[in-house]
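Hey,
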Amino acid sequence: MERSRFAPDRGLTSRMLLTMFLLGLLYVVFVGFFFVFVPRLWLVVLVIAVAFLLAQYFFSDRLALFAMHGRVVSAEEAPELHGVIDRICAMSDMPKPRVAIADTDVPNAFATGRNQQNAVVCVTTGLLRRLDPVELEAVLAHELSHVAHRDVAVMTIASFLGILAGLLTRFGLEWGLWGGFNDRNRNNNDQSTAMVLLVVIGVSAAVYAISFLLTRALSRYRELSADRAAALLTGRPSALAAALTKVTGEMSRIPTKDLRAAEPFNAFYFAPAFTKGISISTLFSTHPSLDQRLEQLAKISAQLGRGV
């Protein structure tokens, strides 16, 4: 792992290792199932899985920017934003990432990339309009700590199995709905084929659910870790708390259609974009609650006040 002055987090490191081990084990079982029960498809599944993994790992930064409509900006285009990131990089002793802006009123930021040399930090125009320079510095320190801790890369890798399982589940359902069963009815093995397809759908759905829960648990912890690292680096936990409170409060003023468009990317955002009311996103959140985050920052503020 590249060194930086961001506070290390052994708890995060151990959780990342455990999550990757469990997901790797799940991946072996998943591919093994196809090898044993669907021998004609196991090689296809393996090729698709490897292709997804390589694409996500090596092109995650480009894919994320494309999906979130972000564009890389130069220091001439966004001098203040570049200046804030320059200060954080100097404080943390880490290489400067590429800087991007997404033109959306949803106030948020995210970082992605497989390592410090290939990282990109993106902020939305909505965030730039709402935060003062000190609050913006706290948010960007939070995002850069994700890069320093390498949890962005781990989350990228960890999510590929769930995506693969979800695609196979969808493919299986659509294949059955659009005549897959009818075509098979022409031979004597139609019932066994139908049963195999149902089992494939069931196993894929189970794998997706397990990987979903594992990545959500890791995601919640990594946000607390990033809050802590940013607060300790900048020495201003109150600025991060103010930014969190402001961004969370502003979410209620964003049109529902914009929040729905942003929700799929919650795992990478500084603060989750929730639509009004209770949803699956609030029950299985990618982030800890605002109260949890503010409570941790209050404790860090008290510790810094005592010189601890």
